[in-house]
Amino acid sequence: MTSKCQLFINFKQGGLKEFSQCYQNLLAFHSDHPDSVTNAIDRINSLAKYHQDITTNQPNPSCPLNVKATEVMPNVFLGNATDAKDEVLHDLHNIRYILNLTCNCPNYFYDKPGYHYKQVQIEDSCKEDIKEIIPEAINFIDQARSNNCSVLIHCQGGVSRSPTVTIAYLMHANKQPFKEAYEFVKLKRPCIAPNLNFMGQLWEMDQRKNTNASQSDCLLKKLICRGGKE
User: Fold this and answer.
1) Euclidean distance between CA atoms 186 and 193, whole angstroms
2) DSSP helix/strand/coil, 202
3) Cα dist. 37→40, 55, 134 in Å?
4) Region for 158 from its dihedrals, namely left if φ exceeds 0, alpha if ψ lies in -120 to 50, beta otherwise
5) Which sequence positions are flagged as catalytic?
6) How far is 4 from 6, CA to CA, in rounded Å?
7) Is 225 left (phi over 0), alpha (psi -120 to 50) or beta?
8) Along the 230 residues of the chain, how does pLDDT read in single tens digits?
9) 29 in helix, strand or coil?
10) What is the distance between the alpha carbons of residues 198 and 28, in angstroms, rounded to a whole number?
11) pTM as predicted
């Protein structure tokens, strides 16, 4: 049995400028500078290839709604909106800190003594910038662990947003490279599928960290060679 997929391409009169005015919600990148557009296309292609490389030969089943929260590392649970309201689950694993990454899921036990909530609203879209959000999410998770409590990191389905933040936390807490952190979370919860935008930003964070580390190493070597004098 074979299936055919037809691809239709339409050209918009007026080019990118006209498209951005008519369909701003569909535009993930815009620049009037040709080199910037070329660089953006190259970046998208490289990220797509990188995503393909790290997901090759890995299982990617659909994430059933009844899948339970996953303990990714001690006291750190990754889950969905159903887990957010499961008080039995919370009591069983001493989950007292809940990181809500949705825009509309209630903080079910906000007024109940012993619970600590942080809601960081993230849209699962190609335009969402998570780089400024990650540090406050990491601080909240660290706070839970330092108080010997478990934390639940959840979005709506436990597939894209919450895995993204969990991967970022592993990169922070375990000093893991992005690829290693992604593969670790994927092994624990095979149904994760962060969108390409989130994957790209995590990759860029990893590259920036490596660049900063290399610069620090070079500076340290220079200081040693100069006897500690700048």
Assistant:
1) 9
2) helix
3) 5, 27, 27
4) left
5) 155
6) 6
7) alpha
8) 555 555 455 666 666 566 655 555 455 554 555 554 445 555 555 555 555 555 554 544 445 556 899 999 999 999 999 999 999 999 999 999 999 999 999 999 999 999 999 999 999 998 999 999 999 999 999 999 999 999 999 999 999 999 999 999 999 999 999 999 999 999 999 999 999 999 999 999 999 887 655 444 454 455 455 555 54
9) coil
10) 13
11) 0.70
| Amino acid identity, position 39 | N
How many other CB atoms sit within 10 Å of the CB of residue 227? 6
Nearest residue to 46 (alpha-carbon basis) of 165, 196, 224, 225: 196
8 A C-beta contact, residue 205 and residue 168: yes
Containing H/E element for 153?
A: strand 150-154
SS (H, E, C) 74-122: CCEEEECHHHHCCHHHHHHHCEEEEEECCCCCCCCCCCCCCCEEEECCC
**Rounded-to-integer distance, Cα 173 and Cα 14, Å:** 49
